[in-house]
Amino acid sequence: MSVVALVPAAGRGVRLGLGRPKALVPVNGQSLLLRAVRGLLAAGCVQHVVVAAPPDQVDVVAAELAEVPDAHVVPGGAERTDSVRLALDSVERVAPDARVVLVHDAARAFTPASVVQDVVRAVEQGAPAVVPVLPVSDTVKKVDEAGNVVATVDRAELRAVQTPQGFTLDVLREAYAAADGVATDDAGLVERIGGTVHTVAGHPHALKITTAFDLAIAESVLAVDIP
Ligand code: CTP
Ligand code: MG
């Protein structure tokens, strides 16, 4: 039995604004995608990786990962959910012995190995779905269409959710089979079918590189600590 990680990397990186897919953006000479894939495999508990690439750049992404023999590349889709679904569809072919599946954003390229290990361990110990989370440090308010505050939400009950998210393969397949429309994360699809989603501690270094500010943080702090 093995663990397979699906890496959605088919986004266009519009908010980063560098005119290329975010996954291919280098940080200190190494692309976010290569860092993310190497990080998953280096955790020691993931045997296969399936990367969903921009459909018109499958060859470029495959070349980027040429030195990683356990990584496979498939064309992604229009939305993240489509990309994950396409990667999930390839698991039977790429990793027929997989029973645990992770879904991990290429954009969270600096996720520490300990987070990957904690998520896999929690699934192997019986949780059908697991997400890494952080406490929310900002005060959070609900606002109406006019921009007026409706309520202050009790932030003690809130968590910001990261990846990798971990699942038994059966549960993720069931969730995607039932999915209609787009979800902002994969565990949300498990919630919709009534599944329990367990949490483990996330890590600040697992931030999603979304904007130029995030990239500057990665260049100045993370890639220095994590070469
Ligand atoms: N993603 C994907 N397929 C899509 C859209 C997004 O595989 N059709 C991936 C991205 O490559 C990224 C992750 O999902 O690794 C999270 O998405 P996001 O941070 O929104 O990345 P982008 O869509 O590339 O960025 P933007 O929304 O700014 O264009
Ligand atoms: Mg996006």
UniProtKB/TrEMBL annotation:
Pfam families associated with the record: IspD
Single biological process term from Gene Ontology: isopentenyl diphosphate biosynthetic process, methylerythritol 4-phosphate pathway
Site positions for Transition state stabilizer: 15, 22
Root EC class: transferase
Chemical reaction(s) catalysed: 2-C-methyl-D-erythritol 4-phosphate + CTP + H(+) = 4-CDP-2-C-methyl-D-erythritol + diphosphate
Keyword Transferase in record: yes
Site (Positions MEP for the nucleophilic attack): 155, 208
Pathway named in the protein's UniProt entry: Isoprenoid biosynthesis; isopentenyl diphosphate biosynthesis via DXP pathway; isopentenyl diphosphate from 1-deoxy-D-xylulose 5-phosphate: step 2/6
Superkingdom: Bacteria
The enzyme's E.C. designation: 2.7.7.60
Keywords, comma-separated and alphabetical: Isoprene biosynthesis, Nucleotidyltransferase, Transferase
GO molecular function, one term: 2-C-methyl-D-erythritol 4-phosphate cytidylyltransferase activity
Keyword Acyltransferase belongs to the record: no
Alphabetical list of CDD domains matching this protein: CDP-ME_synthetase
Transmembrane segments: none
Role: Catalyzes the formation of 4-diphosphocytidyl-2-C-methyl-D-erythritol from CTP and 2-C-methyl-D-erythritol 4-phosphate (MEP).
Similarity comment text for this entry: Belongs to the IspD/TarI cytidylyltransferase family. IspD subfamily.
The protein's name in its UniProt record: 2-C-methyl-D-erythritol 4-phosphate cytidylyltransferase
Higher taxonomy: Bacteria, Bacillati, Actinomycetota, Actinomycetes, Pseudonocardiales
